[in-house]
Amino acid sequence: MEHLPFEDQTFDYVISVEVIRYLADTRHAIREFQRVLRPGCLALVMAIPPLSLTGYPLLNRLTSRFQVRRFSKSASFSTLSGS
Question: Which residue has the higher pLDDT, 2 or 75?
Answer without folding.
Answer: 2
